[in-house]
């Protein structure tokens, strides 16, 4: 598996340091608001767990599973809800936790869904951002790292469901996804 990685971009320690910083900012900004923190599965599962452990204010969590990449390194353009939230977002301060914003399609779809369900506010934290690939104009409120225009894996992010368990984020060798 390690042989499939061309280059490590951020190691486990650098990621943990950044997650702590993001959690401190969120704790300060959401003081007294009891946010509903939504993990966008599957990619955000590791970031979500590490993040909330470092947030010091009361919060609630829920999960939503969406998918548009499947077995590809390019978005299909169609965002599918695979699992919806268990609770209502009406009147809630919602914090969406994403692993990566790439084309922006997943997030714009989710923000739209949550606003139509009358969330009081919708805020976004993403660990990784790939601004070069945007097809929809949008930015997160909190961003960990800005990445180059390469397909990356690890720390929750997959290619065809693999590599999510790597504790670091790295560029996947193109030959892994170009070979048939
Ligand atoms: O900005 P975008 O181009 O929409 O890409 C970002 C989204 O794509 C990935 O999810 P994916 O559809 O691969 O599902 P997964 O999290 O289950 O891997 C990733 O985890 C983000 O949710
Ligand atoms: O670079 C990426 N890697 C894994 N999943 C993704 N989903 C959008 N961009 C990426
Ligand atoms: Mg994926």
Automatic annotation (TrEMBL):
GO terms for cellular component: cytosol. One of its GO terms (molecular function) is nucleotide binding. Residues 7-159 form the Phosphoribosyltransferase domain. CDD domains: PRTases_typeI (cd06223). Its main location: cytoplasm. Keywords: Cytoplasm, Glycosyltransferase, Magnesium, Metal-binding, Nucleotide-binding, Purine salvage, Transferase. Purine salvage pathway enzyme that catalyzes the transfer of the ribosyl-5-phosphate group from 5-phospho-alpha-D-ribose 1-diphosphate (PRPP) to the N9 position of the 6-oxopurines hypoxanthine and guanine to form the corresponding ribonucleotides IMP (inosine 5'-monophosphate) and GMP (guanosine 5'-monophosphate), with the release of PPi. This is Hypoxanthine phosphoribosyltransferase. It comes from Paenibacillus abyssi.
């Amino acid at each position: 598996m390690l042989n499939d990685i061309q280059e490590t971009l951020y190691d486990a320690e650098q990621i943990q340091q950044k997650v702590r910083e993001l959690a401190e900012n969120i704790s300060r900004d959401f003081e007294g608001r009891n946010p509903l923190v939504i993990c966008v599965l599957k990619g955000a599962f590791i970031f979500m767990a590490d993040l909330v452990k470092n947030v010091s204010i009361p919060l609630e969590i829920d999960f939503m599973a969406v998918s548009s990449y499947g077995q590809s390194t390019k978005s299909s353009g169609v965002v599918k809800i695979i699992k919806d939230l268990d609770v209502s977002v009406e009147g809630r301060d919602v914090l969406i936790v994403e692993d990566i914003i790439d084309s922006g399609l997943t997030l714009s779809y989710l923000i739209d869904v949550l606003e139509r369900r009358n969330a009081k506010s919708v805020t976004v934290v993403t660990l990784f951002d790939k601004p070069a690939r945007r097809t929809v104009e949008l930015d997160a409120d909190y961003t960990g790292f800005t990445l180059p225009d390469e397909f990356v894996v690890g720390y929750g992010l997959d290619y065809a469901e693999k590599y999510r368990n790597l504790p670091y984020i790295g560029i996947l060798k193109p030959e892994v996804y170009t070979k048939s």
